[in-house]
Design brief:
The structure is a single chain. The protein has one domain: Rossmann fold (3-Layer(aba) Sandwich), CATH 3.40.50. It has helices at about 15-30, 40-50, 65-75, 90-100, 115-125; strands at about 5-10, 30-35, 55, 85, 105-110. The chain has a five-stranded parallel sheet, with helices on both faces. The chain is of the alpha/beta class and about 130 residues long. Helix 2 (about 40-50) runs parallel beside helix 3 (about 65-75). The two termini are about 15 Å apart.
Length: about 130
């Protein structure tokens, strides 16, 4: 059973994408959702807030998703934090780079609500659907 009270951090430079992901998470029953517009803001939130799961875009100004992932994996407190990378970059080299940086899973944009749920379930080791009934 997934703890729907877990804190999910959504990181994307596009407010419309953050809103879309937040709405999907709410539909799944997650209520504790934090948002950041780039990796630097996300790192600040990690220092001030409890975060249990990160969903981050790769391509962002200032500090991108790969830099954020490397920061998270190098941190003693967050090294094992579930991290889902969202990106329009589907080339093999990008996937390999993310896997080598120990991303938990990878989702190519555009994505469907079902594919987001499937990736989250895989990361969380959850067999039951996440959608609220």
């Amino acid at each position: 059973m997934v703890n729907k009270n877990m804190s999910v951090l959504v990181v994307d430079d596009l407010g419309s994408m953050r809103m879309q992901i937040r709405d999907l998470l709410w539909q799944m029953g997650f209520q504790n959702i934090l948002e950041a517009r780039d990796g630097n803001q996300a790192i600040g939130l990690l220092e001030r807030s409890r975060v249990d799961f990160i969903i981050s875009d790769w391509s962002m100004p200032e500090c991108d998703g790969m830099e954020l992932l490397r920061h998270v994996r190098s941190s003693e407190n967050y090294a094992k934090l579930p991290f889902l990378m969202l990106t329009a970059l589907s080339e093999r080299e990008n996937v390999i780079e993310a896997v080598q940086a120990k991303v938990s899973n990878y989702l190519v944009k555009p994505f469907t609500p079902e594919s987001l749920e499937m990736k989250m379930r895989a990361i969380l080791g959850c067999k039951e659907p996440l959608w609220e009934k």
